[in-house]
Structure prediction request, 518 residues.
Amino acid sequence: MHSLQGRTKMLAVAALGSGLICALSPLAYASPNGGPMGVFTSHADIGEPKLKGAATYNAATQEYRLTAGGTNVWGERDEFHFASRTMKGDFILQARTEFVGAGVDPHRKAGWMVRQGLDADAPYVDAVVHGDGLTSLQFRRQKGGITEQIESTVKGADVIQLERRAGTYTFSAARFGDPFSAVKIADLPLGDEVQIGLFLSSHNPDVIEQIVFRDVRVIRPAKPDFTPYRDYIGSQLELLDVRTGHRHIWHRSQLPFEAPNWTPDGAAVIFNASGSNPDWRGRLYRYDFSTRQPTLIDTGFAIRNNNDHVLSFDGKMMGISDQSTDQGQSTIFTLPSTGGVPKRITPLTPSYLHGWSPDGKFLVYTGGRKGEFDIYKIPSDGSGPEIRLTTAKGVDDGPEYTPDGKYIYFNSVRSGKMQIWRMTADGKNQERVTHDDFNNWFPHISPDGKWIAMISYGDDVAPPEHPYYKHTYLRLMPIEGGTPKVIAYVYGGQGTINVPSWSPDSTTIAFVSNTDEL
Prediction:
């Protein structure tokens, strides 16, 4: 790896300081002659604008910067700069946008584009933000035809998503922190093979404008006819800065993995492998940020681990939910976090671990007993019987202690939608925490005790379910309550944040997103 791109990627590896992640100084490169750049295979001016545009990719921050002139992307022909690649089939395109400076023309525009070809008058559809805040879905139905537009209800959007499913194009837009609002068009025949990418037009032939695209994701979703828990797609380990919402992909694999626990020293995360590969599925791995490599953790006979593993607060012990015994029913075991011989803790199954008390004395988990799923706790050394903490009908799941040990947060379907609840550590004073139209799962409390992170599903998912491969939000709310804010727009679901995922300094969340091979 002696190319400029390879050298940049090597230098972009983050350093570890004080046990936490610290990025090295940014390095940017512009690919020569419009060649490969990040996830794109080329970039070029379309329509011969008077002033030439350019594109750069910062491998350290995973950001794209476009500069461009051009009269417009409108009417019967276009002028703009385009970073693109060829794709077929269904896809999801995501990015956050930020124009650089006040700009000259209020109608400068940028966003995602799907184009039938690279001619100036080619048919296309785009998800576009304008300098004056207009947000719209633009499209040209035929070569040399006029451009049409469907305006979004969102003004000043800076998060954009363009999705193609079976020929229907859906543009979702939001101001960062808000849920998406969508518009769509279903009768636009662009063909199966298209050019997709990021674009910018200054809307003024004598002006160069600039824009930065962050959190750029080109996603190949699961096929519509996939069978859950039999068919899998690839996984990406991402780190999310909760202060800015910026995301960084650290590890990709077509062998799927799930549920990263952050170690208390900040040096690594532990995740479980999933999928259909018998040599991979069900094992636990430690991913070190310094080496950027996963290494197998010895869990003895327990080699069918699911995504409900938990570290003790001091990081010395690990609890796992494993299906290697008891006729494949999930059973909770404990072992040293570095590996070792598992010790069985729960006599009854199925039991799905989610939390460890700060004093190390109890495990808290979801138990399926006589068709009901409730919250239980049990001494972590296995010395006593399980104690039932909830009795409401329906699913109670995802229990986790607060760092002071006073409360257990969990999600419950008892109010109709899946919502976040809390109770005192003895199971008393159960009260609802979230009150919205989403289905909210897996409350994770920040180590400083100030924040709750959760994953939220929409109405396309039944309240008792948390499936793979859906559009989801990661949301954040103050521990004292309030309206949750979206901090990541994620294609994921099952396995994204099933386990405690906060960095030790409460600034970053580790999670898993999904995409099939591009």
